Amino acid sequence: MVKRTANLNYTVIATALICGLAAAPSAQADSDLLKLKNHTEVKLALDDALSSKTAKAGDMVHFHLSEPVTVSGKTVIASGAPVVGRVTKVNRRGHFGTNAKIQLELSPVKTVAGTEVPLGFKTKTNDMARPGAAAGTSVGAAVLLGPVGLAGGYFVVGKEVKMKPGDKLSVEVSKDTLVKAVL
After folding, report:
1. Measuring CA to CA, how many Å separate 131 from each of 54, 94, 95, 108, 157?
2. Using alpha carbons only, what angle is made at residue 143 by residues 138 and 144, rounded to the nearest 5 degrees?
3. 147-154 vs 133-145: helix crossing angle, rounded to 10
4. For residue 98, what pLDDT is reported?
5. How far apart are CA 159 and CA 151, in angstroms?
6. Bigger pLDDT: 26 or 68?
7. Rounded distance, CA 2 to CA 22, Å?
8. Rounded distance, CA 107 to CA 26, Å?
9. Residues whose CB falls within 8 Å of the CB of residue 43, separated by 6 or more in sequence, listed in order
């Protein structure tokens, strides 16, 4: 019986060693992960033309990364990686200098290791909420000239959104993501 217990102990030790060796590579793999932080800038180039005159909700718009994204000097998202956007809303240009707007939703971009990283737009509430300069002029004209100035402001139309292939756009990572890199 003693002999059997000794064999059992060797089996337990051997199993523990094998499991320990199997766990070592995954521990090393975890140390290879880098943190791609929320708000990291991602530079895109437009592949398709985009205009507020013709765009409608549901349209797909294609982009690619114009520069690689790096963390600690290591590339985590390669230059040229594709990104697809979907038009969610289009506001046409309007009277009183109201500029057109196109709202997009971006698909995640894939890293060099295949991890998906969510993207979003940088927002500056002052810029988004501020009416065009022409709108300010129209309001000023209404105050100074009364109804005649207000009628004149009606004919001041805002600008269209017109983008052509190759135009640049900066977006950002919208969530901290653990990624693998290449040198």
Report:
1. 22, 11, 11, 31, 12
2. 95
3. 160
4. 73
5. 19
6. 68
7. 30
8. 30
9. 65, 66, 67, 168, 169, 170
